[in-house]
């Protein structure tokens, strides 16, 4: 089973990353889905999406959870029945979860692609990154910013929250491994620590609420 990486985080939190290499039938072994999740999976037309969905259940099993320990609220945010916090991500051949005993958390994995240059102005002011050395570095940095905002969005889980207007990521260097983020929405502000890493052309970003 390709558990790709485990990252122990402060405040009793842990990130687990899976590299999806097995077949769908292999990943189905030993996994019992709730009717809700079974319906969700069967609605996925992509086999890779179904394999990613099942691999998440194997990541949960590493921490002692089964699918019946997971439920979703009206905003689509996942929760654990024991009250711990969880966030889930999948991107192509990698999936990941973050679980925290005490603090709200979010995680996002993204493939580094030039496509991000075309959509960047929809989620961040591009003029902030004029000092970035070259196109490759810009793709990497913008992917981190996107992952950071996605992680914060997963924590906040409020319809109407705008990546561009309500979520701010403190500037950072690619040589760093962390930064901070702020959500300012409807007159309320909240603050987050953000940690990022890169591997095999992917970026993993996770956020922890202060």
UniProtKB/TrEMBL annotation:
Keywords: Transferase
GO molecular function, one term: holo-[acyl-carrier-protein] synthase activity
Domain 4'-phosphopantetheinyl transferase: 105-204
Signal peptide: none
One Pfam family linked to the record: ACPS
Protein name: 4'-phosphopantetheinyl transferase superfamily protein
């Amino acid at each position: 089973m390709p558990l790709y990486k485990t990252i122990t985080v402060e405040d009793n939190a842990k990130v687990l990353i899976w590299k999806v290499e097995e077949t769908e039938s292999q990943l189905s072994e030993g996994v019992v889905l709730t009717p809700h999740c079974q319906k969700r999976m069967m609605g996925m037309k992509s086999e890779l999406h179904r394999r990613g969905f099942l691999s998440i259940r194997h990541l949960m099993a590493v921490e002692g959870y089964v699918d019946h320990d997971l439920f979703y609220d009206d905003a689509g945010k996942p929760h654990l029945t024991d009250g711990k916090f969880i966030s889930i991500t999948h991107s192509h051949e990698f999936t990941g979860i973050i679980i925290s005993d005490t603090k709200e958390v979010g995680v996002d994995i993204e493939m580094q692609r030039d496509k991000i240059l075309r959509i960047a102005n929809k989620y961040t002011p591009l003029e902030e990154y004029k000092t970035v050395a070259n196109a490759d570095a810009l793709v990497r940095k913008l992917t981190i910013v996107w992952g950071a905002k996605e992680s914060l969005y997963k924590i906040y889980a409020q319809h109407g929250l705008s990546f561009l207007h309500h979520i701010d990521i403190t500037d950072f260097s690619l040589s760093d491994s962390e930064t901070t983020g702020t959500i300012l929405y409807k007159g309320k502000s909240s603050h987050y620590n953000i940690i990022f890493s890169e591997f095999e052309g992917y970026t993993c970003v996770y956020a922890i609420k202060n």
